[in-house]
Amino acid sequence: MIKLPRFKKRKSAKAIGNIERRDGATVSGWMITYPAGQPLSILADGKRVGEVIPDQRRPDVQAVHGGSPDVGFSVDLQNHDIPSGSRITLVHEPSGFHFNRFSMQYDSEIYQHIRKIKDLFDVHWYRARHDLHELNEAAAFEHFISHGIHNDFDPCRWFDHAWYRQRHGKTLAPGELPLIAYLKSEHRLDQRPSENFDPRYYAHRNPDLEPEHGYLNHYVTWGRKEGRWPTNRSLPKNLLDDFAELSKIEPQLSTAEQKLNAIVRYPFPMPAKYLTTLTEHLHDGVKAVIVVPFLSHGGADLIATFYLKAMQEHYSMDEVLLIVTESSSVSMAEWLKSGTRVICMEEVVPFNDFAEKVSALHVLIGHIAPEKIININSHACWEMYRWHAKPLATVTDLYASLFCFDYSPLGAPVGYIPDYLPETLPYLRHVWFDNQKIIDDIRTMYGFPEALMARLHCVYTPLSHPARKKVSGVRGDKVLWCGRLSRQKRPDILVEVAERLPQLRFDVYGPEGNDNVGTRIMHGEFPNIEYRGVYNSIEEIDFSEYRLFLCTSEWEGLPTVLIQMMSRGLPVLSSRVGGIDELVNDDTGWLVDDFEDIDAYERGIRLLMDRGTDITSRTDAGKALVRDRHSWAWFVNRLAECGAFDGTADRENTGNRQPPEPRAVAN
To answer: Is the model's pTM score more than 0.70?
Structure first.
């Protein structure tokens, strides 16, 4: 039990409240005091180190308890001089109220690295490995921070405390935590976190990565999903030499040399029963399978739900299955119709690596034997198409939805289109895009014959639901920017524009991405840019506050957010990239021809801020275009025209033979 210091209490003083969230070193909640407006003391081992006055608006608390809504608080302990290892308590001293003796251990080095720790923490693996199934995701991470990290509980399969102590224990200072020691020293590339990950090899193999982000963090967050190798998988040199000698006897063996270095070595037992586990979540009669990487807050994720809904309407709810390959849960469950059949592969089976997941997906599809497979941005499904499209196409119709090229830092087109489309298009029945521009670019780049080009179709995205909040009358003077804070969306351009217009305020909504400037926006480092978090529904935005919507993307398909903004009559100023000018043009909005032209963005914003500018004709035209071309009926009819609901094609009887499974070598 935590022993609290004695306070000189005043009988007239009272307080009620609740600690609702711990996010690293930040503690959030609410407190109502009588009299109102009194501070909350922050104690470290019973000594006051600071205070905070609850002043954040909490109308939900006001609705229950009355009084002022300004009763919320958020305390970042890193802003206070707190000795590492202290026990923190929050107390209203006049009344002695202490949030049911809430306390937490504070370790400054943990919180200095909290973002990296969060990124590499695998909640489902952690719960299964340490038998903590009763904990939800937030509680599991809190358990690791407060208990697990101090007791050598591994946060993921790629950091092994025992392995690290055995090999690098002599480098640890007294009381130093292995995970923190590794994160601090990783840039030297002289220590491995486990036998499953080699930072020196990973850095050498991926020279495009920035070391400050952390190699282990990159692999856990992105690399393993992209199929990057965490360690050198080459066979020992003596075996390769023996193979070379054998090739002199049988020359055809030399063609297999490349494959020898791609043998997957599993450092722990491969879950051989994954098919049995996965099929426990299946039901009979599935005719259409939609495969997605995840369902979060992205535009591609939203579009995937439209294809899902269209298939559910054509077949039935029970005949359509959604397979989620890269996530253990569905973040945006409200986007799905009640009764939707879903399998999250990562939730059911803790796969060792990407290759195993691809194999599992292939076997699972073979077990289901659907009429159609529709891949919408799933890397695992694209990889399955790469290896197995030819035999799969003899027993089921293969489809895909694509949006645009991605681009490397040097401007080279990368992503699913160059990586997979040329090789798999002969076996795909149809491929749908959300804009015509990308189809024209593919024709120019690859020169596919007309028979293959005829399989590529533009299907414009419908509105998620009719706009309930429309901009009319007097508008505010703020600028709205929404999107993932990634390099593609160019938040750095937003910052430059905001610096040119310090008298204006720019509000930003969107999830974290892979951009350093985006991270700084989230941390509130720019005076006239306010990060507003992530919305679950666009209806949460009060459009009356905004004069215009700004899009600064470097590359795009046709962003769903532009369709949503135009449907509400909000003026749109956007870069002219991808298929954007199929929606935003001189009749419906305002375009910047060069996405890096800061002067053009500034002129456009000044023009739209001028109350004398006539914007109604363009916003009305934009709403009309969205109403006519982005309706649900138009979307479904267009899918029908493009073969989405065609029956299964006649195929050669192959006896449902399955291609051989990838080899695996277990240590």
So the answer is: no
